[in-house]
Design goal:
Length: about 325
Amino acid sequence: MLLALLTLSACDNAPGTQVLEGKTMGTQWRVSVAALEPPRAAQLRQRIQQQLDADDHNLSTWKADSVLSRFNRYQGSAPQPVDAGMADIVTVALRIGQKTGGAMDITLGPLVNLWGFGPTKQPVHTPDAAQIAAARAQTGLQHLRVIQGVAGQWLQKDLPTLSVDLSTLGEGYATDHLARLMEQEGIRDYLVSVGGAVLSRGKNPQGRPWRVAIQKPTDRENAVQALVDLQGHGISTAGSYRNYYELDGKRISHVIDPLSGRPIEHKLVSATVIAPTALEADGWDTGLMVLGSEKAQALALKEQLAVYLISKEGDRFVSWMSPQFAAFLIGDE
């Protein structure tokens, strides 16, 4: 389950644009560049898929042999070695988790599973207070730390049953990784995305800025809320309006509030963040989505974040943007 939903779409249909795409992490990846010779395009696509497959093997909670799954199964307190990429993701997660007052929490696996958004099936009835309390007791960012040293990096937990789920950040991390691959390949003008995380550099083949559309929070595809020029930044959206189910007559969102242990019920339906990296954007959008509109606005202003929020007020959708986001806006449609 990936929190950053497909609410962003690349406007990459300019003449001369070549689009490579495939699947990873339970979603789609997409790379837009100037047209390449067929052999070069095939080689690039293969390298992209290999890299993303390696990322998935590192971060997946669905694959029993992944690095993260092995860490989650380990029930001791000794530091466990990880690569620099995973250490970076967890470091970002802990920092954003602290700044959001715990709203962005990568240890929520037991609660995600309890509410039926993990590998387990959906519950037949709404979990009771005792079940929620038991699941919450197995979570908490305070039980997790990253150790950085000359010899490498390690993750350490002081709660044996603690498990880490990086799906809220995996799309952003993989998108940044794609951008680094483009640079290594000598490609300076590109737009890359994994799921709902997008990053661009340079211009499209027509010499114009790459444009990204923020879709309206409806079930209709291609309903555009706003257009942005990322100016070399990353963007990610979290939303509560597509990944849900009905239980005991209530709509159950996949976005879980770590403090209550329950799915969110507030009016905020979409949070979009533009940040220097897609990873940063992917972490902030989740935390802001959990906080709700008023707290998210206050935090965005305090941290000077580029944020675009959409709330549902009755039958209307109401948008709010921070001053920093306005600098990226092209226009509304």
